[in-house]
Design a protein that fits this description.
The protein is of the alpha+beta class. The chain has two domains: 172 residues, no CATH class; 141 residues, no CATH class. 43% of the residues lie in helices and 15% in strands. The strands form two sheets. It has a four-stranded antiparallel beta sheet with strand order 1-2-3-4, covered by helices on one side. β1 and β2 form a beta hairpin. The longest helix has 36 residues.
């Protein structure tokens, strides 16, 4: 999830863990702990873009990292707050819970999380919630504002930390239910439309859990489409994108290309834009694909233009959005 969500949720968990009297200090520690795994952003300062793609949400988002960092943060907090009567073991459990919650909810986005790094490079990704979903984040945000306004012994503090921790996870459960519903419907549609595939995924469209982006295909290419939970027809107007592996022959052994293929989890296509060879990772959706089925993919990597390879994951995601696009997006969500 986005950093603001982690900070707010971490603060609410801090309040829940230590209770009245120590709440605001615990909220600050909780916000810090929830942010700790995202220290991997520093890798972008020296790693190549393709290396940074694999490093992000890698070791610092793993269970071994959580087990290592929790005792360190606990030692610091215990020293800072002496002689407060909080056992070192409680600090360890607190920081371990905070970091593990971060790893858990990041696993529901489509980027993938290396929970088992460095022992396995497998990325866990449930593709159930968009990385910045306002309806997931807003509850913890409201709760944090209220908790900072109330004094440390106010009786309503318990209500607000429950509000800020329970509602996001209830919403996440609803997101999982939506995904299961979409997957059931889409697989029926794929069968009815006689579309064969060996790889498949669905993931939410930007900022919502009501419209879903769907990809199904194999080594020859992928069918791409959208489905709303309000769609009543058992039909999707898929667009076909050939994979074009042959375009990679000249550079297939380059480390950079191998990193991109590994990162994409095989959901990729290759295109030639004039003199530029372009690698598309399909998992991050299209730019206004519900409106323009042949739209460019959000993640496109320019293989022979090194200066243009920064910020490739979110390149142009909201480029061109205006009142008409937003209106069309809302209509598509409604099932129109």
């Amino acid at each position: 999830m986005d950093s603001i969500t982690h900070i707010a949720l971490g603060a609410c968990i801090g309040e829940a863990f230590f209770g009245r009297g120590f709440g605001k200090k615990a909220m600050l520690w909780g916000a810090l702990a929830q942010s700790a795994p995202d220290i991997d952003f520093l890798g972008s300062l020296w790693l190549r873009t393709d290396e940074n793609l694999l490093a992000h949400r890698g070791f610092t988002h793993s269970i071994p990292f959580a087990l290592l960092v929790a005792p360190v943060l606990a030692l610091v907090a215990e020293r800072v707050h002496r002689p407060v009567n909080i056992r070192y073991s409680k600090w360890v459990i607190f920081f371990l819970v905070e970091v593990m919650v971060h790893l858990f909810i990041d696993g529901f986005n489509n980027y993938g999380v290396g929970w088992l790094e460095p022992f396995s490079h497998y990325r866990f990704s449930f593709n159930a919630i968009y990385v910045a979903d306002p309806l997931f984040s807003i509850w913890a945000g409201i709760a944090v504002v209220m908790l900072f306004r109330l004094h440390s012994y106010h009786p309503r503090r318990r209500y607000w930390w429950r509000f800020g921790t329970l509602l996001p996870f209830l919403y996440l459960s609803w997101c999982v239910f939506n995904k299961l519903t979409i997957n059931r419907d889409v697989k029926d549609i794929l069968q009815e439309q006689h579309i064969s595939y060996t790889r498949y995924f669905s993931t939410p469209a930007p900022l919502t859990n009501l419209l879903w982006y769907v990809v199904a295909g194999n080594d020859s290419g992928y069918h791409v489409g959208f489905r709303s939970i309000f769609d009543d027809k058992k039909q999707i107007n898929f667009s076909w994108f050939p994979r074009n592996d042959s375009l990679l022959k000249a550079v297939a052994n380059h480390e950079e290309v191998q990193h991109l293929i590994r990162f994409s989890q095989q959901f990729y296509t290759v295109e030639q834009w004039g003199d530029t060879l372009v690698f598309n990772d399909l998992r991050f959706g299209q730019m206004m694909g519900w409106q323009n089925p042949r739209g460019k993919f959000v993640f496109h990597y320019l293989l022979n233009h090194p200066a243009d390879k920064t910020l490739v994951v979110q390149r142009g995601r909201f480029s061109g959005w205006d009142e008409n696009v937003i209106s069309g997006y809302l209509r598509r969500i409604r099932g129109d």
